[in-house]
Amino acid sequence: MRLFQYERAATPEAAVADCLAEDARFIAGGTNLLDLMKLQIETPAKLVDISRLDLGAIEEAEDGGLLIGALVPNSDLAADPRIVARYEVLARALLAGASGQLRNKATTGGNLLQRTRCYYFYDRHTPCNKREPGSGCSAIGGENRILAVLGTSEHCIATHPSDMAVAMRALDATVVTLKRDGDRRRIPLGDFYRLPGDTPQIETVLEPGELITHVALPPAVDGARHVYRKVRDRASYAFALVSVAGVVRMDQGRIAAAQLAFGGLAPMPWRNAEVEAALVGQEPSPALFERAADILLADARGQGSNDFKIPLARRTLAATLRELTEAR
Amino acid sequence: MQFTVNGQRREVDVDIRTSLLDLLREHLALTGSKKGCDHGQCGACTVLVNGRRINSCLSLAVMHQDDEIVTVEGLGDPERLHPMQAAFVAHDGYQCGYCTPGQICSAVGMLGEVAAGWGSHVSPDLAAPELSTEEIAERMSGNVCRCAAYPNIRAAIAEVAEDGGLEAAPEPRRQEALA
Ligand SMILES: Cc1cc2nc3c(=O)[nH]c(=O)nc-3n(C[C@H](O)[C@H](O)[C@H](O)COP(=O)(O)OP(=O)(O)OC[C@H]3O[C@@H](n4cnc5c(N)ncnc54)[C@H](O)[C@@H]3O)c2cc1C
Ligand code: SF4
Ligand code: FES
Ligand code: FES
């Protein structure tokens, strides 16, 4: 690990003031950043410890939603009775991720910003445009079983590994930030991540030194059913190959509202409004679910060892929709 | 830097890069906690910080100067075993023993989480979880055992849970305490 300067911030304002240099980084739970620092994939010259900031609460928002502090541990978020009762898909996604120990440390803000698990990103001896811009992408034509089939570019086919972010995307969450100049921004999660294009090293719209202070959830959809279905290589403690977060409300045997987001398929939690539009107003049926999958996967492109994700996504979507719509 | 480990205040001079695991093993001679992977993947380094189980390998020591750190050595000693330690002995919850300190700390933390009403990935009802064999396996999946002593590990944990060994487990840190 490279040597770094360490500072513990007392307030969010002090944290952004401390994090001025290009090679300074915030550290929250540290479960992703330290992992990458040990391998010298991240080599910050300065760490600004934000773990003691007063951003550890979950509060009722004025609009009837919830305001989640950036430092709320993943465990606490999953166990919060309001999350369990009103946003079960989020609790389920969190509990499907990592391990009990890791969830105790991992934070809401850090989880959103965790980096890809692409094997080559982790291997400093191979070319990787995300780790070393311009060096090439070893995954294209290489080992890409866990990588993306949607939203990729010729420069990078990495997936975003978070489960939590997929549920938040389905729930229309908004990221609240504090910038260096003191400005606050509210960034819908749908605008937060960037596709790789020819700059895969830039993953979000955050400016350098911009601090996530909260994630806001809009009011919950009344009477909706929530499902998070994660397909992975082991039954527990493994990243998603494919996952679907779904929130669906039924009315008299028809789908009245549908919010669906997908993990493991793309460089960001993936959502496609056309998929949802095709479902709303319809009676659930295997043919309808196939049509939704056709729309979702119209532009999907495998790279060899990840080809299987396309039929897997199709079946996972159908299974999730069945669970969301079947009479109980 | 100053730390509170197993109820004792300790002062040491360490490099800023030192992980909590290396602090315990290399600087405080607490070699119960083990290094399996050093990357959060095996759970051998699990300790309790403010009553919560965490991976000490993915923690910077400097970030835990104000915390209560408990290692397997702090849970009990050969003369006065913690109920979880005694149950692991009674059920042969290990073969080589390398993962055992992490398993024991993790199990103690886990029972605290169950007592606090936390659900898991396999709980049908997240609001009212009940501890079953399947629940123990899921909740302990962050602790890998190379010897696959899993059936006996689960049996040991189940016995402590049934015996109401929960009281012995420290309370997980509540959210308010975070601020
Ligand atoms: C073995 C293992 C298995 C895992 N399995 C899963 C899994 O199945 N599913 C899953 O979703 N995740 C999984 N994870 C990843 C885990 O969820 C993340 O490591 C964790 O959520 C990161 O949170 P953190 O607080 O520790 O972030 P840190 O490591 O502290 O930070 C991560 C990044 O975010 C930045 N950052 C942190 N907080 C803020 C903030 N408030 N504002 C601005 N920037 C910030 C940091 O500068 C850093 O760049 C796994 C991790 C490991 C090690
Ligand atoms: S897919 Fe992206 S992260 Fe993986 S090697 Fe290619 S550029 Fe790097
Ligand atoms: S040594 Fe910490 S998880 Fe393996
Ligand atoms: S007893 Fe040998 S690794 Fe678990």
TrEMBL record, chain A:
The UniProt entry, under InterPro entries, shows: CO_DH_flav_C, CO_DH_flav_C_dom_sf, Diverse_Substr_Oxidored, FAD-bd_PCMH, FAD-bd_PCMH-like_sf, FAD-bd_PCMH_sub1, FAD-bd_PCMH_sub2, Mopterin_DH_FAD-bd
PROSITE patterns for the chain: FAD_PCMH
Which segment of the chain is annotated as a signal peptide?
none
* SUPFAM superfamilies associated with the record: CO dehydrogenase flavoprotein C-terminal domain-like, FAD-binding/transporter-associated domain-like
Residue ranges annotated for the FAD-binding PCMH-type domain, each copy included? 1-222
Q: Which UniProt keywords apply?
A: FAD, Flavoprotein
Q: Name one GO molecular function term.
A: FAD binding
Per its record, how is this protein called by name? Molybdopterin dehydrogenase
TrEMBL record, chain B:
Q: Name one Pfam family in it.
A: Fer2
PROSITE patterns, A to Z? 2FE2S_FER_1 (PS00197), 2FE2S_FER_2 (PS51085)
User: What Gene3D superfamilies does the entry give?
Assistant: 3.10.20.30, [2Fe-2S]-binding domain
Q: Which controlled-vocabulary keywords does the entry list?
A: 2Fe-2S, Iron, Iron-sulfur, Metal-binding, Oxidoreductase
Where the record annotates domain 2Fe-2S ferredoxin-type, the positions are: 1-75
Query: What are the recorded GO MF terms, alphabetically?
Result: 2 iron, 2 sulfur cluster binding; metal ion binding; oxidoreductase activity, acting on the aldehyde or oxo group of donors
Q: What name does UniProt use for this protein?
A: 2Fe-2S ferredoxin-type domain-containing protein
Name the source organism. Sphingomonas metalli
